[in-house]
Design a protein that fits this description.
globular, disordered N terminus, 3 helices, single chain, 204 residues
Amino acid sequence: MLGRMTASQGRVPLDPLKAAPIQVVDAPAIVVMKAGVHASEDLPGVVRGKQAELDKHGETYWGYNRWCHASKVRSFAQEWASKGHPPLVVMPLTKIEHHEQRPRATEMSVDDKKTWRKIPRGLSVGSSEKALALDSLWWALIAFDQDAYEFVYADEEKESKQLSKCLRGRVGKARAVLKRRPHEVPPVAALVGQLTAPHAMDVR
C-alpha cells in the first residue's frame, strides 16, 4: 500500500526510479491525473518548484485544466477524509504535452466561484483553471491495476465503469474507488501526492 511520505522523504530524482521500491496502489479512493509537460515547462522542473513550496510552506497547489470539476473533487475528498482515507493523487507519467499558456493565477475559490480570495503568498499556480491542494509529493514506481478501480462519474446516475475504460486517449483525469484487490501488474513511473484541505479549488 502507498504510505504517507513527506516531501523530503519522497524526493527521488527521475533517473534513479529504476532502483526505487515498487509501491502498490491500493488506496480506497484516488484521484488520477496524468502528468507531463505543462505550459511548455518540463515535469522535473515543475516538481522541483512544488517540492520547494512544500519545504517552505508545508503545502503546494498542483494546477490543472479540463475535466474533474474542483467542486466534485472537493466533495469526493471530504467524503473519504471523513472516513479516515483522504484520497491519494496518482499521476502516471505521459508523453502527451500541453503547451497552452494562461496567465499565472492570483486568486482561488473553494465555493464554486461565488467568492474569491488571494492565493497564499509563496504558492504558484501557472497556466491552470483549477488546482489540487497537496501536503506531500513524491516520485514513485507504482503497480497500478486500473481494473481494480471504478470510475466515479460526475453524474451519479450513470452506470459505473472500470477506470481503465475511462482513461483513454486525452482523457487523463478521474476520481475512482477501489472495488477489488489489485492484481499484479508491471510497474510504471509516476508522481504521487496526498490531498489536504481545501483539497481542490478554482483559480484565476
